[in-house]
Write a structure and sequence with these properties.
27 strands; Alpha-Beta Plaits; elongated; 5-stranded mixed sheet; 9-stranded mixed sheet; alpha+beta; Rossmann fold
Length: 635
């Protein structure tokens, strides 16, 4: 740290100077006295305030007169500036900051106006002229880089200037000393039409922008998300003033609690506007009025070459719910009536919303945990509540739910679970207003999974057997999946006579309606249920995935109490169907096809076909041992 440099800057004015620092991603506001009396340990980025202040609060109104002008030059080389800086330093490789010293002191307001004029004149960082500005200290390290870079002093013997020299250089006065209108960059004032402005912004933004705009809780890097929102808003053609008014009230406004938060935010938006190349010709960047005309932008398709495709790194598809649903996929859960389709989807939605295991057995990928939405038009609110209470209690989410007392269940509810239910018995996927309502909820609540239950009651007058009529609905559902990066689950039924068509491979073919539905899905679960003598039910599940190998059909025992009772539990019963014979035999030892055929009693053709299917599914492996090929369970 160059203490000589700091002493020179501090000695030109009275009052309190500041030496704030950034350590481990946390900003620490410190006066110079506080810093010197208790200096931090370890690695940190150190800054200094150019001006001094009349109190220990670095607020705009507390700034005192001084003799320094400043600029955060970014990539502008100070050696190329005609009005040579008095002091200049390199904050990191190829990036610079500087100071100009005046011969006589000036008010903080004058210093700020002059610094702003210099910033615009030399093309420096448009967000760096505030009187509360802090700059890096020469002689310290810049830890934003790996490896860290030294902040290097370039020179400190530049000229001193009269304020008139600055006004002349920046064009604020002409050669005859006549005043020229200064840079107009004032912070916008609150707008009475904010609600209207929000609606316009939401309309103009793409799905990613809408999610940022309407987010209620921040995620990830707030600085990066704020910058992204600002740029996306500017790209729509909205003016800087309107972008400021929107960003100020967003959850991403990390400057909200700062004394000069509005000023910092406005400067950041001014900087963002320079980096955004707008594609709209009908919007004005200087208007402070609310933009009212819709602006349409054509999204260019992405052209990928053969070489780029083969050379690209594509991540392996991941599970959202282990072995049950792939991350961000769209698909169907189908079966005959009373096969617990709605029960399964509700359990899945609650598991994704809370991160608790599905069925208390299958883990949810932490990358997919988040709010879920169930759109349903079939079950009564009473039945829906009863099932959710059962599941929540079974997952340990109710924290103290009591036993049944005189037929009444007393529940102490926990903190809010981000799971939402849209119970509209007139919901119609062919109606634009209904679609818009769902998209609004997805955006405002940050939904990660949406369930539609059941499809056949949500299609209006569409004939499910007509590919032409069903295609727009499937297209909209696919758009939800792609635009909002969410999982989409549709509950559907098997068609007439499907109960007579046995065979595990026929699950998708048995779907009610056009085969277009079967071709559309990425993930699918096919359920069959049968009652047991002990009051439980056996549910057989067949799974099908476009991106992953499907496990063999499995059976589960479901125990669930009547309405008002809290009992709810799943228990795995293992593989079922003809595959079960093979699995049971291979759990004992690896076997050849001849041994499997003899032990199972199946014919050669059926044994061969079954082994081929299990190999394709990845459920078993085949290895050469001597002259024979043996099969074993996949690990």
């Amino acid at each position: 740290m160059d203490s000589k440099f700091l002493d020179r800057v501090r000695d030109t004015g009275s009052g309190i100077s500041f030496l704030p620092y950034m350590k481990d991603g946390v900003w620490h506001e410190r006066t110079a006295d506080e810093f010197y009396s208790n200096p931090p340990e370890g690695e940190y980025d150190l800054y200094f305030s150019v001006l001094t202040f009349k109190s220990s609060s670095r607020k705009r109104e507390n700034a005192l007169p001084n003799m320094w002008l400043w600029a955060d030059l970014d990539e502008v080389n100070p050696a190329d500036i005609e009005l040579k800086p008095t002091i200049a330093w390199e904050s990191s490789k190829g990036r610079y900051q500087c100071l100009w010293q005046l011969e006589h002191g000036a008010s903080a307001e004058t210093l700020e106006q002059a610094s702003r004029a210099l910033t615009y004149k030399v093309g420096a960082d448009k967000g760096g002229w505030s009187r509360t500005k802090v700059l890096r200290v020469p002689g310290t390290m810049n830890y934003k880089y790996d490896p860290p870079q030294q902040v290097k002093l370039l020179w400190d013997n530049g000229p001193l200037y009269m304020i008139a020299d600055v006004w002349q250089f920046t064009g604020q006065i002409d050669e005859n000393n006549n005043h020229v209108e200064p840079v107009n960059d004032e912070i916008p004032t609150p707008d009475e039409n904010y609600d209207q402005l929000y609606e316009i912004a939401w309309y103009l933004l793409d799905p990613r922008g809408r999610r940022l705009l309407s987010a209620k809780e921040a995620w990830g890097d707030r600085s990066a998300r704020l910058w992204e929102l600002e740029c996306r808003l500017l790209e729509t053609g909205l003016s800087k003033e309107n972008v400021f008014l929107i960003a100020k009230q967003s959850v991403w406004n990390k400057h909200a609690d700062k004394p000069n938060g509005d000023e910092v935010l406005w400067q950041e938006i001014a900087k963002a506007s320079l980096s955004v190349s707008t594609m709209n010709t009908s919007a004005s960047n200087n208007s402070s009025e609310v933009d009212t005309a819709p602006i349409y932008r054509k999204v260019k398709p992405t052209l990928v070459t053969y070489g780029d495709l083969l050379g690209s790194q594509i991540a392996e598809p991941q599970w959202l719910i282990q072995d049950w649903w792939t991350m961000g996929s769209h698909g169907i859960i189908a079966g005959l009536p009373k096969s617990y389709k709605s029960l399964v989807t509700t359990d899945m939605a609650l598991s994704v919303a809370t991160g608790t295991p599905f069925m208390n057995m299958y883990e949810v990928n932490e990358k997919g945990i988040g709010p879920t939405l169930v759109v349903q038009v079939e079950n009564s609110p009473a039945l829906l509540k009863d099932r959710v209470v059962k599941m929540a209690y079974n997952k340990g989410l109710l924290h103290g739910a009591s036993h049944i007392d005189d037929g009444t269940l007393s529940v102490t509810f926990p903190t809010q679970v981000p799971m939402f239910f849209y119970n509209d018995f007139a919901f119609d996927m062919t109606d634009e207003a209904c679609r818009q309502a769902i998209e609004t909820i997805i955006v405002q609540e940050g939904i990660r999974m949406v369930v539609f239950d059941p499809l056949y009651l949500m299609m209006g007058s569409v004939d499910e057997n007509s590919a032409h009529e069903i295609r727009p609905i499937l297209s909209w559902l696919l758009q939800l999946r792609n635009y909002y990066n969410i999982a989409v689950i549709v509950v559907h039924h098997w068609g007439k006579g499907s109960s007579d068509r046995k065979g595990r491979k026929q699950g998708g073919v048995k779907l009610l309606g056009s085969t277009t539905i079967y071709g559309w899905l990425e993930s699918a679960l096919y359920l069959e249920a049968s009652p047991n003598t002990d009051g439980s039910s056996t549910v057989v599940v067949e799974r099908e995935f476009r991106e992953r190998l499907a496990p063999p059909p499995q059976a589960f025992k479901l125990r669930m109490g009547d309405i008002g009772e809290i009992d709810y539990a799943w228990e795995g019963e293992g593989v079922v169907g003809t595959e079960a014979n093979i699995f049971n035999l291979l759990t004992q030892k690896p076997m050849s096809m001849t041994e499997l055929q003899a032990a199972s009693g199946m014919g050669e053709k059926k044994t061969r076909a079954l082994l081929t299917k299990l190999l394709a599914d990845g459920a078993i492996t085949m290895e050469q041992e001597g002259k024979s090929k043996v099969f074993r369970l996949a690990k």
